[in-house]
């Protein structure tokens, strides 16, 4: 991925509009049979440097940048799912989830074809290996902003 700042184009659009909502024949239910009335627009990750973190995840996932500025960046999901956003937070500090008095606020898990190769690639992009590991089938890494994420083989 080239420099994210150079990829900014067009007006800021926080997320794509969802497909048209089709009313259900059953009151309170969508055509999919669920009872929800909202759809996920985007997951936004807080950080100190949105450009750098979007670059990291863009390379990790192979996703393209839709928007970037010094305070916010968006990566589009090429499979049509929700995009990932990255927002600057003044005074941002990484989550101390591996410390006795800390916890993680969220984490992302990704399927990979080859766990060892994918771990090496993520480390080369700037991730670090977490001291605590959940087991042999999930590798816990820390992104450059301090958020934990997992890599798991797709089997």
TrEMBL record:
Residues 1-35 are annotated as: Disordered. It holds the Pfam family Glyoxalase_6. InterPro entries: Glyas_Bleomycin-R_OHBP_Dase, Glyoxalase_6. Residues 42-151 form the Glyoxalase-like domain. Residues 13-22 have a biased composition (Pro residues). It comes from the Bacteria. This is VOC family protein.
């Amino acid at each position: 991925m080239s420099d994210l700042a150079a990829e900014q184009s067009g007006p800021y659009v926080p997320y794509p509009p969802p497909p048209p909502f089709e009313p259900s024949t059953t009151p309170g239910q969508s055509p999919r049979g669920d009872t929800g009335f909202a759809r996920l627009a985007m997951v936004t990750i807080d950080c100190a440097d949105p450009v750098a973190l979007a670059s990291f995840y863009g390379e990790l996932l192979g996703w393209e940048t839709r928007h970037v500025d010094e305070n916010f960046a968006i990566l589009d999901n090429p499979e049509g799912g929700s995009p990932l956003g990255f927002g600057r937070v003044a005074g941002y500090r990484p989550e101390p989830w591996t410390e006795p008095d800390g916890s993680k606020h969220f984490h992302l898990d990704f399927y990979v074809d080859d766990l060892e190769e994918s771990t090496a690639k993520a480390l080369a992009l700037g991730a670090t290996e977490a001291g605590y590991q959940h087991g042999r089938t999930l590798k816990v890494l820390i992104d450059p902003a301090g958020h934990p994420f997992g890599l798991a083989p797709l089997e």
